[in-house]
C-alpha cells in the first residue's frame, strides 16, 4: 500500500501569529532549529514564513542569512563551559523592529490532505521549488512534511512502494 501524508507527516506543527515581530520570529526559528513555520490565526493556516522571508527585509540580507544558516547547521553553540542558547544578535534584531510576520509571509501556503499520496507531495515540493507542505484538516494545520522528511524516507528505504 502506498504511503500517504498522514503516514509520514510530523504532527505538532510549530506556528506563529501574523503580528509577531520579525526579531522574535528569528529567535523562534533558531531556537526551534527550523527554517520556516506555519502562520496561524484562530487555529487556521493563513500563511507560511521562512528564514528566506526574513532575509528579504532591507539590509538584513547578508547579516541574517549567514548567521541563521550557520546556527541551524551547527546546532547548539559550544562554549568552554558547556553550551549556550542560540538567539539572534541584538544588532540584527534591531534592524527587524517594526516589521511583522504578516509583512513578509507567503499568504498561499501549499497544503495537502492527510490522504494525499507521498509521491504527489514529493512532486509538489519539486515542481514548486519549496521545502515544506502543510497537512491540513478543515483549514487547521495537523502536520508538516519537509523535503528532508522525504530524504529520510528514501534513506530508510520506505519510499519503494510510495
Task: Walk me through the topology.
Layout: H1 5-8, E1 15-16, H2 22-31, E2 36-41, E3 44-50, H3 51-55, H4 60-74, E4 77-79, E5 82-84, H5 90-95, H6 101-104, E6 111-112, H7 118-128, E7 132-137, E8 140-146, H8 147-155
Parallel strand pairs: 1-2, 6-7
Antiparallel strand pairs: 2-3, 4-5, 7-8
How would you describe what is shown here?
By secondary structure, the protein is an alpha/beta fold. The chain has a single domain (5-155), classed as CBS-domain (Roll). 40% of the residues lie in helices and 22% in strands. The chain has 8 helices and 8 strands. It has helices at residues 5-8, 22-31, 51-55, 60-74, 90-95, 101-104, 118-128, 147-155, and strands at 15-16, 36-41, 44-50, 77-79, 82-84, 111-112, 132-137, 140-146. The protein has a 3-stranded mixed beta sheet with strand order 1-2-3. The protein has a 3-stranded mixed beta sheet with strand order 6-7-8. It has a two-stranded antiparallel sheet with strand order 4-5. The relative contact order is 0.23. Mean pLDDT is 82; it is low at 76-82.
Distinctive features:
162 residues; alpha/beta; CBS-domain; three-stranded mixed β-sheet; 8 strands; 22% strand
Amino acid at each position: 500500500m502506498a504511503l500517504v501524508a498522514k503516514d509520514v507527516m510530523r504532527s505538532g506543527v510549530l506556528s506563529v501569529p501574523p503580528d509577531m515581530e520579525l526579531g522574535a520570529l528569528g529567535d523562534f526559528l533558531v531556537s526551534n532549529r527550523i527554517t520556516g513555520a506555519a502562520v496561524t490565526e484562530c487555529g487556521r493556516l493563513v500563511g507560511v514564513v521562512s528564514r528566506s522571508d526574513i532575509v528579504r527585509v532591507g539590509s538584513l540580507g547578508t547579516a541574517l542569512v549567514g548567521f541563521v544558516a550557520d546556527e541551524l547547521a551547527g546546532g547548539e553553540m559550544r562554549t568552554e563551559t558547556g553550551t549556550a542558547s542560540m538567539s539572534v544578535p541584538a544588532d540584527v534584531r534591531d534592524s527587524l523592529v517594526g516589521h511583522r510576520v504578516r509583512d513578509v509571509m507567503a499568504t498561499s501556503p501549499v497544503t495537502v490532505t492527510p490522504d494525499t499520496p507521498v509521491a504527489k507531495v514529493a512532486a509538489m515540493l519539486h515542481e514548486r521549488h519549496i521545502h515544506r507542505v502543510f497537512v491540513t484538516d478543515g483549514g487547521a494545520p495537523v502536520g508538516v512534511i519537509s523535503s528532508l522528511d522525504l530524504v529520510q524516507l528514501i534513506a530508510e528505504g520506505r519510499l519503494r512502494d510510495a
